[in-house]
Design brief:
The structure is a single chain. By secondary structure, this protein is of the alpha+beta class. Helices cover about 45% and strands about 15% of the residues. It contains 24 helices and 19 strands. The strands form 2 sheets. Strands 2, 3, 4, 5, 6, 7, 8, 9, 10, 11 and 12 form an 11-stranded antiparallel β-sheet that branches. An 8-stranded antiparallel β-sheet has the order 1-14-13-17-18-19-16-15. Helix 13 runs antiparallel to helix 16, helix 13 runs antiparallel to helix 20 and helix 14 packs across helix 20. The chain is globular and about 70 Å long. The N terminus is likely disordered.
Length: about 725
């Protein structure tokens, strides 16, 4: 199945997408741009200049950097993305002696750029519709688990065949509409990524969690990385022999920036939205999952922060986890407040009552789909009922690093005994190297005293849950009574802090692991049946919901007789808007541009409002020539705009009507955290760093003028 850059959408899927996408809100799949009147919104380019499957176009300058978006801003593979997207690399490369988080990092030449282990750069090459092939794997006689497994296997088969037919490329099948449409994407994966420039955290994280998800904002959330290839241009692991990647397209950096009311657009890889889910899903989110996330994340953050108070080396080791947890905690709090304030669930209930009446008004529809909403509700009711056990069980595996490492080691040993295509995705041959690398990076950040506290907390929650079964889980240290000494022995005797030991384990069979007498591996072996039961339960629910949501979305389209946007799914999308302020509450009207003056006004000298002396001095001396906003008379720092974004849009280029880069997306306002559930032009606002602040900090302030020259901007 040799695939060209042409988009191969069948006529039926094309019609479905076209009908569903005629909406004003939108993270528009790039395959459908030609169906929108983007010129009426303010775009000065043709849609084929933005995306054309057969030619070099704007999207060729966009890449995915791990879970974020990035832009190629020079012919030598220089990538502009967020500081928080590069944070894991900065943290991993830091030590008490070389504290790049505190002091920043600036490579004076390519030879000084540092390898960002665990980072990949993904570039979209082509798309093809594979819906028929995926859906045909499921037959009417299959139960829900078998259905999920059959479709998973078919997707893996299609990916493997595509990679065989297209050597050097990576394939992934994405679900575009639940239970309805699937598209195979081909990507170039670059595995040698290096850190080039990162401002100090006092710039990249200015305002910290106080300002996170807030406006006005004064955060310089940007960093530069660079992608490398083998000398022949092929993707390769890190090597000193490698050369900078040569992108097909480079985004032009426009140092003039933007003004209020200007048209802007973003290209990027938004993660998951859930706007097409039912009221029963929202009830579970609002009543169960989000409160749990807020509670547990807040506790973990406090525990991790306390552990690093007296030791900077420990603080550096835990910094990335704290940042990630804090981001999710505040977003989840905002979503809870937003769901309550806007009453989205009640609006869904009303809409679904009318939808159900429409189904019941036709005997054929009623016979085929009369119980559809009720069947979906039953799945979420089941999930809610099991949550007091399942959520802490999942948290124990994800939050306690020793349990997480031991589980992945044991799970890999079990899965890698199977044929490649039957393994869980992380352990397939094509993915196992990256999985192993991520695990070894986790070993580097492991801190046993704090890990023991996390273990104790989540085993306590399991012990107190009325839903915890009388099983192997009930007997593990921390859940069983009088087990404190057993917990202490676990952590006193573990070898998981040794990367060589972990590396050796990753090549062993389950039987060989049993002979190591590693306490956490023995613990996980005891718990493994319960985790496998949970995995099977998740697959059953997924198969059930996939089968139900397919006809639900199709009927909803017929019922509304109008379009709705498909939920974001990590694939390349475009969204448009304007530089625009807002009025989130009565009596408050917010302007859409902040300046360096605001940075100085906010600076207290205490975290998180600390500003480097060099920035203060440059601002005091008005050393801002070439980067001032003509009306404001100062360097603009952050911009506010009404595009439709979500997680994954971090690092997306903010571009003007000609496709020139004028800013860098990094956040939403607190009111817009609800975007994942519902979008509204009144309260949905995104936040970016103005390009002039990026250029000013990089060049005149920190002296990396060579990067400005490399981007073709020059130094004023």
């Amino acid at each position: 199945m040799k695939i060209t850059r042409a988009v191969l959408l069948t006529s039926g899927i094309f019609a479905t997408l076209l009908t569903l996408l005629q909406a004003e809100e939108g993270m528009i799949p790039v395959t459908q741009l030609s169906e929108f009147d983007l010129k009426s919104r303010g775009l000065e380019m043709s849609t084929t200049e933005v995306f054309d499957a057969g030619k070099v176009c704007l999207v060729d300058g966009i890449c995915r950097v791990n879970g974020c978006t990035g832009s190629f801003v020079s012919p030598e593979g220089l990538i502009l993305t967020n500081h928080h997207c590069a944070h894991k690399a900065i943290q991993s490369l830091s030590s008490a002696e070389h504290d790049y988080l505190t002091n920043g990092f600036m490579a004076a030449s390519k030879a000084q750029e540092l390898h960002a282990k665990g980072y990949t750069v993904r570039i979209t090459e082509s798309f093809s519709d594979v819906s028929e092939q995926v859906l045909s794997a499921a037959t009417a006689d299959m139960d829900f688990v078998a259905r999920t497994k059959a479709m998973e296997l078919r997707r893996k088969e299609l990916e493997k065949q595509a990679e065989t037919d297209n050597p050097g490329l990576r394939a992934e099948v994405a679900e575009m509409f639940s239970g309805r449409t699937y598209v195979l994407f081909l990507y170039t994966y670059l595995k040698d990524v290096r850190l080039v420039f990162a401002p100090p955290a006092s710039i990249g994280e200015f305002g910290g969690e106080v300002d996170n998800w807030e406006w006005p904002r004064h955060t310089g959330d940007f960093s530069f990385m660079r992608a490398y290839t083998a000398p022949d241009g092929s993707a390769a692991e890190y090597s000193e022999r490698n050369v900078p990647y040569r992108p097909r397209r480079v985004l032009k950096v426009q140092p003039d920036g933007v003004n209020e009311s200007d048209f802007v657009m973003l290209l990027g890889y938004p993660g998951r939205t859930v706007r097409q889910r039912t009221a029963s899903f929202l009830k579970y989110e609002q009543g169960v999952r989000l409160p749990y996330v807020v509670d547990t994340n807040a506790w973990e953050i406090k525990t991790l922060e306390e552990a690093g108070l007296e030791d900077r080396a420990v603080a550096i080791r835990l910094a990335n986890r704290i940042k990630s947890l804090a981001n999710v905690e505040k977003r989840s709090r905002g979503q809870l407040l937003g769901l309550g304030r806007t009453n989205v669930e009640q609006a869904k209930i009303t809409e679904e009552m009318q939808f159900q009446a429409w189904i019941d008004s036709d005997e054929q529809r009623k016979a085929q789909a009369g119980s559809l909403l009720g069947d979906i509700d039953e799945v979420y009711t089941e999930i809610s009922g099991a949550a007091s056990f399942e959520l802490p069980l999942q948290s124990l595996r994800s939050s306690c690093q020793c349990v997480s490492l031991a589980f992945q080691i044991f799970d890999a040993a079990v899965e890698r005994q199977k044929p490649d295509l039957q393994r869980e995705t992380a352990y397939m041959d094509r993915n196992f190297e990256l999985t192993s690398q991520q695990m070894l990076l986790a070993v580097q950040d492991l801190h046993l005293p704090v890990d023991q506290k996390i273990y104790a907390e989540f085993t306590r929650r399991l012990a107190e849950s009325p839903a915890t079964p009388s099983s192997s889980i009930a007997a593990i240290p921390g859940v069983a009574d009088n087990s404190q000494q057993a917990v202490e022995r676990l952590f006193a005797q573990t070898q998981l802090t040794n990367p060589d030991f972990v590396r050796k384990c990753l090549s062993m069979s389950p039987e060989q692991l049993q002979g190591l007498n590693e306490p956490f591996l023995m613990l996980v072996e005891t718990m493994y049946p319960e985790y496998m039961k949970l995995r099977e339960t998740d697959k059953r629910r997924d198969g059930q919901l996939t089968q139900l949501y397919g006809p639900f979305l199709e009927l909803k389209r017929q019922y509304q007789n109008s379009a709705f946007i498909p939920d974001a799914n990590g694939t390349l999308r475009l969204t448009t808007g304007h530089i625009r302020g807002d009025s989130p509450r009565d009596g408050i009207r917010r302007v859409p541009v902040t300046t360096v003056r605001g940075v100085i006004e906010k600076t207290t000298g205490n975290e998180p409002f600390v500003t480097p002396d060099i920035v203060m001095q440059k601002a005091k001396n008005r050393d801002t020539t070439g980067f001032r906003h003509p009306q404001l008379g100062d360097v603009p720092v952050a911009i506010l705009y009404d595009t439709d974004t979500t997680g994954g849009n971090s690092g997306s280029p903010v571009m003007n009507s000609r496709g020139e880069l004028v800013g860098l997306n990094f956040d939403r306002t607190f009111e817009a955290t609800i975007n994942d559930f519902a979008w509204n032009p009144d309260y949905s606002r995104s936040i970016g760093v103005d390009i002039r602040y990026i250029l000013w900090i990089t060049g005149p302030v920190y002296g990396s003028n060579h990067l400005l020259n490399e981007m073709g901007v020059g130094v004023p």
